[in-house]
Design a protein that fits this description.
Elements lengths: L5 E3 L5 E3 L10 H28 L4 H14 L3 H24 L7 H17 L7 H28 L3 H19 L31 E4 L2 E4 L1 H18 L1 H11 L1 H6 L4 H26 L15 H11 L4 H17 L12 H35 L1
Antiparallel strand pairs: 1-2, 3-4
């Protein structure tokens, strides 16, 4: 024991010095961070209101229509929850791949392939019963995982950046599903089941759909509870398991992780597979839940859910629990936009509002990072 760590007690006997107190978080600093977020969100809403007024609309009417279409209207919360499910599932997969240092931006294609596999399992295998719902969701998971696995093989076998391969696979997925919807031996429904639509799959039978819950006048599929449970599970896995720790290690520093025995191809490839599986599950849940396409697969079924789910993961700053709230916010913007047209304002104005909110939620972390970096540079200058 060093001399600095010994003090003299009341009786003259040496005693060990007390350990330093752990500094509690400064409430003033926390209030500053919260205030920064509130100021940025307020500025985004003010700019949105100004834009609406400039284009000849009423900002009060527009925001009231958004609320009515997403929350306040009869049954609208149920519709919003149904949209939030695939957004959350896509975001969870994105969080896992990003934590491993991978940039997967092909969720739209993985979701589309997952929905196509789910439609094939639910309409072409000739099985009926509640157990088929599980098969439909599993088929979606497998389809999305295999489609993301192509990007994993290209990365770890041919050193192709996953940001390029996943993006290009979106176009290929769209063309493949379009081809499937032109052939009855794949996905196309018989002529008598298509009414006036040329490209549509068979509708899932009543016993192969996800059950719906009625709560205070709002109906939504039980996949809402599944998505929330998966979000909590992902958060726990990333923080409290060895696999999650190794995945985060790989994302922070690949060389250090490899020296510690973390194989990039094994853990990175697994992260891409799981990420694609979540996107495929989102496609299966969209098909079996009925909130998209009325239990049928149609061209454009993905409906930009993959891209929006990517934004949810980005805004939530790779936190699974926070992604639950962000998915609901983006779902509100999506479902509420259908009511904006009644105010005489272009519906696309909600896309601008969404973009401004994304920027408002991304600016505070950037400012905090710059402030911390400046403090570190000043501290290093003082030491020298």
């Amino acid at each position: 024991m060093s001399a600095e760590s010994i003090t003299t007690g009341t009786a003259g006997a040496p005693t060990a010095a007390r350990p330093p107190r752990v500094r509690r978080p400064e409430y003033g600093q926390l209030a500053g961070v919260v205030g920064l977020y509130v100021a940025c969100i307020g500025a985004a809403l003010a700019l949105s209101a100004l834009l609406v007024e400039v284009t000849g609309g009423s900002s009060v009417d527009v925001f009231s229509a958004l609320l009515n279409g997403s929350i306040r209207g009869d049954g609208r919360i149920g519709a919003t929850l149904g949209v939030a499910v695939p957004l959350l599932l896509v975001a969870l997969g994105t969080i896992l791949s990003n934590r491993a240092g991978l940039v997967n931006i092909g969720q739209e294609g993985q979701l589309y392939i997952g929905a196509a596999c789910a439609a094939y399992a639910g309409t072409k295998l000739g099985m009926h019963g509640p157990h088929v719902v599980v098969l439909v969701l599993l088929a979606g998971i497998v389809g999305g995982a295999l489609w993301a696995g192509i990007a994993g093989l290209l990365k770890y076998r041919r050193n192709v950046p996953e940001v390029l391969s996943t993006l290009l696979l979106v176009t290929i997925a769209s063309q493949l599903v379009g081809y499937g919807l032109k052939n009855q031996w794949l996905l196309l429904a018989p002529a008598e089941g298509r009414s006036n639509r040329q490209q549509v799959s068979r509708q899932l039978s009543a016993d192969t759909r996800l059950p719906r819950v009625t709560w205070f006048g709002n109906q939504f599929p039980i996949s809402v509870f599944l998505a929330i449970a998966l979000a909590l599970l992902v958060g726990a896995v990333m923080v409290r398991t060895v696999w999650g720790m190794r995945l985060r290690m790989l994302g922070h520093n690949r060389r250090t992780a490899q020296r510690a025995g973390v194989a990039a191809s094994r853990y990175g490839g697994a992260a891409l597979l799981v990420s694609g599986g979540f996107a495929g599950l989102a496609g299966g849940a969209m098909l079996a839940g009925g909130d998209f396409g009325n239990y049928t697969l149609v061209p454009g079924f993905a409906s930009q859910i993959g891209w929006t789910g990517l934004l949810v993961a980005l805004v939530s700053r790779q936190r699974a629990a926070l992604a639950i709230a962000m998915a609901f916010v983006f779902a509100c913007l999506r479902t509420g936009s259908s009511f904006v047209a009644s105010t005489g304002v272009e519906r696309r104005i909600t896309d601008v509002v969404q973009g401004l909110l994304v920027l408002a939620l991304l600016v505070p972390p950037a400012l905090l990072f710059l402030r911390q970096r400046r403090r570190a540079q000043n501290a290093a200058g003082d030491r020298t």
